[in-house]
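Researcher: Next entry in the queue.
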Amino acid sequence: MFVTMKKISRRHVLAASAYAAVAPVRAAARPPIGLELFSVRGELKKDLFATVRAVAKMGYAGVEFFSPYFDWTPEYAKDVRKLLDDSGIRCFSTHNGARSLARENLTKAIDLNGILGSKFIIMASAGHVEGLDGWKAVAGTLSQAAEKLGSAGMRTGFHNHKAEFVAIGGVRPMEVLARETPKSVVLQLDVGTCVEAGVDPVAWINRNPGRIASVHCKDWAPGEGYRVLTGEGKSPWKEIITAAEKVGGVEYYLVEQEGSRFSEFETAERCLAEFRRLRG
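Model: Structure for this entry, 280 residues:
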């Protein structure tokens, strides 16, 4: 009797282990879609709380706060976290200037992001950088931040603009950042600026497997720049989405707009609807 029970128990353990190994893959939902709140910066400046509620009502699953959040007090951040929880929406990440990731400010960044529930502290501007050696120094800052953030259950990363995809002496700064940082450092892909620079975003994703944890879904078109809505520009969205989900390791998408022919809220609604359609 005891031997039989032992065998059954072992089988159950093995079955449970096998299920645990495959169940997350089978049950995994598509990466959620959030909004980079710079897209509604005018509304946000007027009333942050009403703006976040409106974004949640549109159907966005999360948001990314941009650099002014770094001046919040912990008390205000707690109020914003309650707002997010009450609205059924998450803070996926924050969009930061270089100061947030400086050694002397990193503890504050971790504390604020921890309150908000953000797991990614992304550098969106490195400030003035001189040459490739300057970009190696930026990579060093990211690498140091990655080590400290890892112990806090967070990750850092870099958000590209056009400049980081323009070669210096035949080498693109983004290539330096990818090569000189650990793989835990996210290469947050801003699609529109990548396309404007003449770089193939699909090829970039494929060259950096597992490192594209988030994608800024901003489009670009000649003559109109970034004012086109998602899907109206030159970006090969379906191919980008396929590469991001099969190779890039994308965990969430962020719609981002710098302005359009519509109001900020209508722009955000239209871009969400179109991205959902493109993704299928």
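Model: The longest strand covers residues 90-97.
Researcher: Noted, moving on.
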